[in-house]
Amino acid sequence: MNQSMSIELDDKNIIVMKLLHYFITEKNYNPIILQGAENEIWLENMSADYKIVRIVSNYIHNNEQFNFDIFKTKRIVRKIKKKTFTFNINTLSIFLDLGDNVSLEPVRNVDCIKVNEEKDLTQNSIIKSNYPDLSKKLKYSEEGFQLFIKITNDINKHNKTDAERVDEVFKMKYPLVTYVLIALNVVIYLASILFGSYNSILEKYSIFAPLIRAGEYYRLLTGTFLHANILHLGFNCYALYVIGTQLESYLGKLRYAIIYLFSAITGSLFSMIFSGNVISIGASGAIFGLMGSLVYFGYHYRVFLGNVIRSQIIPLIVLNLVIGFMTTGIDNAAHVGGLVGGLLITMALGVKYKSSTSEKINGWILTAIFLVFAIYMAFIYAVK
Q1: Structure confidence at residue 88 (pLDDT)
Q2: Pairwise CA distance, residues 283 & 274, whole Å
Q3: Which of 43, 224, 255, 262 could form a disulfide with 53 if both were Cys (CB 3.0 to 4.6 A apart)?
Q4: What is the structure's pLDDT at 37?
Q5: β-pair type (110-114, 40-44)
Q6: pLDDT recorded at residue 377
Q7: Under a CB-based contact definition with an 8 Å cutoff, are residues 366 and 345 in contact?
Q8: Alpha-carbon Rg of the chain, whole angstroms?
Q9: What is the DSSP secondary structure assignment for residue 100, as one 8-state letter?
Q10: Sign of the C-alpha dihedral computed for residues 15, 20, 25 and 26 taken in this order
Q11: Is-contact 60 97, C-beta < 8 A?
């Protein structure tokens, strides 16, 4: 009973609990574990306008302490930027024990609110503008220890649901589509060699702009399943295995298949635009599309994959593009077309539990614009 009475009488703790309940269960913020950050709670939601919300309960009694707090906040935010692959992070700091002689001067990318009691939250212009429903969400029928139990249970339930969703997305599934694509590439190449039909298949099904413009549109796709030699085949199949098995598991079989085929086609269209009347073959345009898709997926799950995307995937893309530009015989235009196509179609299809309806609509609009542009350039502008 002593504990419940202390909670009931501690207005600051009640405000903290209510804010935590609101930001976590209503606005999908997640707590950040920070070493050395005493008497303050950091919450993050990389999809919100304020990507970081701080609830600061330690006493700050003068401007010198306040300026140091801002300095410390910016330093931590810089680290979060690197970890989450985020260029701009707006932060909201809610101070629950700020001295009267502390002046809240405007700070770039850090907005500060002084809260002495609950009504200060509902009357604040920043809160009204960004969280207009907060005033209603602060009202509870429970009080004291019962309020503490309710809020704790709600937050635990929400965190459990989030954890289950993450486990569902990142749990490895059998990459059937990837294995089928690898098998198709291998079987087509081996069959063409064993039956002595390689040259005739190349003539009939490779990416060749004049014949595609003449009506053999199937070449936009069939050419991406042909390979020049065993080394070319082996490299593309290995890249498809490494990237595809992961991405198919993350996105699901249908999304993954659509992304692969769409990237293959946009890669072929760019090959038509920039490679002239040269035959082009290979799955690398589609594979670059998978890398673009992985970057987009990783951006949405950058709390988990931010370091991998920044230190491995993007450098790999850049390195391969540079090699393509510096080496003859590599259709780098197909790589660029596939990369952009894969990223945009992933935006249109959406990332599970992350993409909003408006984001997917924008993705479809951008994808349509990109596809129309590529078709126009390949079939009309390039022949002028």
Answers
A1: 87
A2: 17
A3: 43
A4: 67
A5: unpaired
A6: 95
A7: no
A8: 27
A9: T
A10: positive
A11: yes
> What is the CB neighbour count within 10 angstroms for residue 246?
18
- Locate 44 and state its tokens: 């993050």
Q: Cα separation of 30 and 302, whole Å?
A: 13
Greatest Cα pair distance, the chain, in angstroms, is: 88
Phi, psi of 257 (to 5 degrees): -65, -45
Whether the CB-CB separation of 111 and 92 falls below 8 Å is answered with: yes
Name which of 292, 278, 302 is nearest 335 in CA terms: 292
Q: Which amino acid is at 141?
A: S
Q: List Cβ neighbours of 239 (8 Å cut-off, separation of 6 or more).
A: 284, 287
Exposure class string for 280-301: b at 16+ Cβ within 10 A, else e: bbbbbbbbbbbbbbbbbbbbbb
Q: Which helix (H) or strand (E) holds 30?
A: strand 30-32
CB 21 within 8 A of CB 149: no
Residues designated catalytic: 284, 335
> How far is residue 108 CA from its own chain's centroid?
25
The pLDDT, as a whole number, for residue 8 is 46
Output the pLDDT for position 95: 94
> How is residue 218 written in tokens?
């199937």
Measure the CA–CA gap between 205 and 202, rounded to whole angstroms.
Answer: 6
Kindly give the parts of the chain with pLDDT less than 70. Answer: 1-9, 35-37, 384
Residue 45 belongs to what H/E stretch? none
pLDDT tens digits, 171-226:
999 999 999 999 999 999 999 999 989 999 999 999 999 999 999 999 999 999 99
d(CA 350, CA 259): 11
Q: What is the pLDDT of residue 1?
A: 40
The structure tokens listed for 98 are 């700020």
Token pair of 208 as six digits: 């060749």
